[in-house]
Write a structure and sequence with these properties.
Blueprint lengths: L1 H14 L4 E9 L3 E10 L3 H9 L18 E3 L6 E5 L5 E11 L3 E5 L9 E13 L2 E13 L4 H25 L4 H4 L6
Antiparallel strand pairs: 1-2, 2-8, 3-4, 4-5, 5-6, 6-7, 7-8
Length: about 190
């Protein structure tokens, strides 16, 4: 049953790719994979960088250990943490910032989500470039190592999660809300 729910959720993610300019599994082998996505947003690079850094406001809490994105934080400087608070002394270090060049490049190292429990390492790179009156944001995640199944089977799962996150980031930057329903809705006065 749990596998059916995950499959349906992933299929929904794959069909909602209207904001993503380019989305693809670049390559996938039994030992590793690379995925890449691009999206155009309406704000210039410094504002896009600030929004990216405010990860607890746009990341989908479904893809967190606590289920609540407000527990996520991202310190966008070298040595900074993409972390999640789980309780007073409990938490998760999702990734570590290994290269920061505001407002152009942010690179993190670590295994995302369920890949943490395996002998997997990864590199997540966010690039922000001026263009089209706003910015083009490119994210690439490359991972390799040993897991419970070939890494090529993990690639489409990770890819679909990143598609959803890019859509949420784009909506957050363009409308102030990462959610579909709120994106077009007017706020009550």
């Amino acid at each position: 049953m749990q596998r059916l729910v995950l499959t349906v959720a992933l299929m929904g993610s794959l069909t909602a790719v209207h904001n993503v300019v380019q989305a693809e599994v670049v390559r996938a082998t039994d030992s590793g994979f690379a995925v890449k996505h691009q999206v155009d947003v309406s704000m210039p690079p410094p504002a896009a960088w600030a929004a990216l850094s405010d990860i607890g406001r746009w990341w989908d809490g479904v893809h967190s250990f606590s289920g609540d994105a407000r527990n996520l934080s991202l310190d966008p400087r070298v040595g900074g943490c993409f972390c999640e608070k789980l309780g007073m002394y409990a938490g998760v270090q999702h990734m570590t910032v290994i290269h920061a060049q505001p407002p152009k490049l942010l690179r993190l190292a670590g295994a995302m989500g369920p890949l943490q429990e395996f002998a997997v390492t990864g590199s997540l790179t966010w690039q922000i470039e001026a263009g089209g009156g706003g910015s083009r944001i490119t994210v690439q995640y490359t991972a390799s190592g040993y897991a419970d199944r070939p890494m090529s089977e993990w690639a489409p799962l990770v890819d679909s999660v990143l598609v959803g996150q890019m859509e949420r980031l784009a909506r957050f930057i363009n409308t102030g809300s990462p959610d579909d329903a709120k994106a077009g809705a007017k706020q009550p006065r």
